[in-house]
């Protein structure tokens, strides 16, 4: 009996501490009495917690409150010490492996990268240690300050085992990614699908701030969805949710990279669009498409933006397929917003409007669904990996209630 009482009060202290710390971190500067008012905790409880945080160097005192209307002594102000912690984010991309160093608030201080080595994942793991040294040096952050590491992969990560079941574009299959990284870093590592991580970042820092239910749709080398439902990432039983790219959206025999036909990805991946552009270039010699290098989606987007009718029609057709895929998501999830990420997020307003139009045509009820471009662009995955690392290492009250994180909390 006695022991459960102890555990109970200890976890209560941890919850109180995380509430206070979250409040301090969220403000520039704040007084103890304001902390008490906002947290609903008593002033002595707040003071005890703040004293410990001061001793640990997690927060520091910075001057006094300006206006002193009460006539008593001016209150000392507290601020979060962003140098008290650091986090690493790793992104295993198709072309590059990137490492970001972030401060205690999650602000990115430095990013370094090296060309990705497709195929054997060990070849990608080997140079990581050196890359981390470079990143920390660039950021001026000592290794000992790093509290957690987050890593993202364009593939399926089993959240129960940390195994990367399949990352087709990297050529990885059944690779024990979490174990490999934890051995390498000698530290906790959170491994996530890159689209799911990007969704988390977009919700907290980007275009979906304040939106309770949205889908972050990656439109690039592949097509995938990061689903946030009721403010929480939805990953499914193992972490494989969101593979909308491999759902059949058209009754056409267009082959998909996975071996099936008519999948969303077969119409909307950059590879699929470039294939179509080559066919159109041969058919329309006066189109810009016939005079540009068709190995980079950016040039097709540029041609459409500059008014080339053939390129514009091609991308509007792609948008109509994207809308069909989104309509499935809307019917299934009753989502509020679709955030377009990946290469096609740079297409422009006409593309967004065409996707919206297609959703209205194909979903049962879509009058309240908005389509927007990602505000984080190609930083979304890296930011997401940092945020997930922070979530893991902090004892946060928000996380106590969050089934997603408590499930992957192993230590
Ligand atoms: Zn497929």
What does this structure look like?
It contains 15 helices and 16 strands. The protein has 411 residues and is α/β, with parallel strands linked by helices. The chain folds into three domains: 82 residues, Winged helix-like DNA-binding domain superfamily/Winged helix DNA-binding domain (Arc Repressor Mutant, subunit A, Orthogonal Bundle); 127 residues, ATPase, nucleotide binding domain (Nucleotidyltransferase, domain 5), CATH 3.30.420; 169 residues, Nucleotidyltransferase, domain 5 (2-Layer Sandwich), CATH 3.30.420.40. The strands form four sheets. It has a five-stranded mixed sheet with strand order 6-5-4-7-11, with helices on both faces. It is globular, with a radius of gyration of 24 Å. The chain binds zinc ion. Zinc ion binds next to loops.
Main attributes of the structure:
about 400 residues, Nucleotidyltransferase, domain 5, 3 domains, five-stranded mixed beta sheet, 16 strands, globular, disordered C terminus, binds zinc ion
Chart the SSEs and their pairings.
Blueprint: H1 2-26, E1 30-31, H2 32-39, H3 43-56, E2 59-64, E3 76-80, E4 86-92, E5 96-103, E6 108-115, H4 121-125, H5 128-139, E7 146-153, E8 156-158, E9 163-167, E10 172-175, H6 177-185, E11 189-193, H7 194-205, E12 214-219, E13 223-229, E14 232-234, H8 264-268, H9 270-283, H10 297-305, H11 309-333, E15 337-341, H12 349-362, E16 370-373, H13 380-393, H14 397-400, H15 403-408
Parallel strand pairs: 4-7, 7-11, 12-15, 15-16
Antiparallel strand pairs: 1-3, 2-3, 4-5, 5-6, 8-9, 9-10, 12-13, 13-14
Helix pairs in contact: 1-3, 2-3, 7-13, 9-11, 10-11, 11-12
The protein binds zinc ion (ZN).
Zinc ion is lined by residues 246, 256, 258, 260, 263, 265.
């Amino acid at each position: 009996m006695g022991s459960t009482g102890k555990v109970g009060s200890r976890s209560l202290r941890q919850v109180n501490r995380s509430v206070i710390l979250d409040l301090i971190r969220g403000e520039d500067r704040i007084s103890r009495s304001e902390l008490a008012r906002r947290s609903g905790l008593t002033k002595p409880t707040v003071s005890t917690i703040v004293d410990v945080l001061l001793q640990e160097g997690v927060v520091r005192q910075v001057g006094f409150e300006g206006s002193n209307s009460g006539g008593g002594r001016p209150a000392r102000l507290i601020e979060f010490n962003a140098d008290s912690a650091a986090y690493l984010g790793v992104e295993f991309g198709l072309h590059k492996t990137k490492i970001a160093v972030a401060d205690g608030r999650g602000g990115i201080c430095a990013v370094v990268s090296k060309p990705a080595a497709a195929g054997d994942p060990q070849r990608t793991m080997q140079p990581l240690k050196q890359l981390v040294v470079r990143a920390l040096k660039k950021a001026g952050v000592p290794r000992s300050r790093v509290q957690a590491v987050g890593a993202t992969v364009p593939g399926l990560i089993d959240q129960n085992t940390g195994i990367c079941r399949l990352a087709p574009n990297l050529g990885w299959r059944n690779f024990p990614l979490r174990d490999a990284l934890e051995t390498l870093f000698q530290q906790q590592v959170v491994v996530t699908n890159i689209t799911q991580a990007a969704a988390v970042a977009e919700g907290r820092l980007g275009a979906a701030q304040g939106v309770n239910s949205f889908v972050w749709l990656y439109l690039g080398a592949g097509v995938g969805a990061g689903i946030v439902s009721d403010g929480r990432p939805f990953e499914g039983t193992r972490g494989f949710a969101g593979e909308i790219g491999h759902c059949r959206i058209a009754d056409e025999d267009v082959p998909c990279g996975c071996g099936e036909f008519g999948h969303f990805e077969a119409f909307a991946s950059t590879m699929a669009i470039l294939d179509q552009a080559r066919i159109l270039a041969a058919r329309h010699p006066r189109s810009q498409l016939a005079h540009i290098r068709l190995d980079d989606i950016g040039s097709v987007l540029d041609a459409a933006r500059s008014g080339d009718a053939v390129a514009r029609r091609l991308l509007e057709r792609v948008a109509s397929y994207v809308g069909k895929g989104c309509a499935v998501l809307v019917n299934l999830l009753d989502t509020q917003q679709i955030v377009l990420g990946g290469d096609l997020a740079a297409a422009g307003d006409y593309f967004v409007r065409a996707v919206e139009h297609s959703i209205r045509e194909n979903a049962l009820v879509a009058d309240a669904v908005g389509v927007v471009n990602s505000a984080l662009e190609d930083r979304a995955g890296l930011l997401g990996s940092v945020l997930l690392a922070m979530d893991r290492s902090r004892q946060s009250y928000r996380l106590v209630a969050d089934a997603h994180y408590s499930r992957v909390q192993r230590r």
